[in-house]
Amino acid sequence: MYFLKEYRENGNDAGSKARIDCEKILLDNNIKSIDFGLGGKKRYIKSFFRRIKESKKISNDVLVFQYPFNEKYFNNLNKNILELKNKNVKLIAIIHDIVALRPVKGSISLSEEIDILNSYDILISHNIYMTQLLRNKGVTTNIVELEIFDYLNDKKKNDFTIDGDFKSVYFAGNLDRKKSEFLYKDEFKNVDFNLILFGPNYNSNIKNNKIIYKGVFSPEDLSNEFKEGFGLIWDGESASTCAGYTGQYLRYNNPHKTSLYISSGLPIIIWEKAALADFVEENDIGFKIKSLNDISEILDKTTLEQYTKFKDNTKKIQEKLLNGYFLSNALNKSIMMLK
């Protein structure tokens, strides 16, 4: 069994942490890597003969890869992978994004993407809602749900203790106005609870001493910056609902920051219609909200006893995320399907 290695020059974290963690978990599951020259376009073009050589290693076997591919060689790489089916190689795709649901320049249509996904033997989708969407749009191949992304972190220190203000709210991500527009809405700029922000591109013109900007940290180091409180899952252009492309995408995807928060020991506050809202509710690790305006009232009513319960339940999931449980479980289910 093999997986397609994704290249990062000089070991720098050029790819997303989610993809890096997936590779580590695949290795931990004794899955060997093959190198098709993934990375920049130049490296991919120069690796033509490498791909021929590497392809010879695998026949009558299974290849796991992470989807989608770099748009600069998307079609070419997909062709290379599909050619392996002629050697009786089964294909398992770990989905990170549905490209057509996040329209960008040069994006493929949803019908084109469905055809691509149907050419693989098994898809590992984020959750049941992504699976239902894919089924409704015409995906007929086998699907396994991941549930939530794992989050590996060797730098995670001992868990924080609940000895202060547990009613703070953390938000980590790209804080650019275009990406996190809700942060700059009038109704959210006047929050009366501590809102602690991490990430690049913050517009510090907001004048509210309850909004605290902490800067930019690596994914591993960021985990140790969190204290008592909740991690916020919200996106889009509105404070009253998750609107726009990025907001509505929460209905289907697993935001990686959810895994960041949980792996750090933080309970969650999440939009009630987000795909992961059910996961939060079923595991009793936080609150679902309709609007960001609901947060103040919810925090006011939250007791130390209730927060401690959330925290204890979060710790159970935290241990699984830090050990690669969810992808390992999805891989095992996928392998059983192929037998």
UniProtKB/TrEMBL annotation:
Domain of life: Bacteria
UniProt-recorded Gene Ontology molecular function terms: glycosyltransferase activity
UniProt organism field: Clostridium saccharobutylicum
Occurrences of domain Glucosyltransferase 3-like C-terminal (ranges): 169-333
Taxonomic path: Bacteria, Bacillati, Bacillota, Clostridia, Eubacteriales
Entry's EC annotation: 2.4.1.-
Gene: wbbI
InterPro entries associated with the record: Gtf3_C, Gtf3_N
Segments forming domain Glucosyltransferase 3-like N-terminal: 5-148
Keywords (A to Z) from UniProt: Glycosyltransferase, Transferase
Top EC class, one word: transferase
Name of the protein this chain belongs to: Beta-1,6-galactofuranosyltransferase WbbI
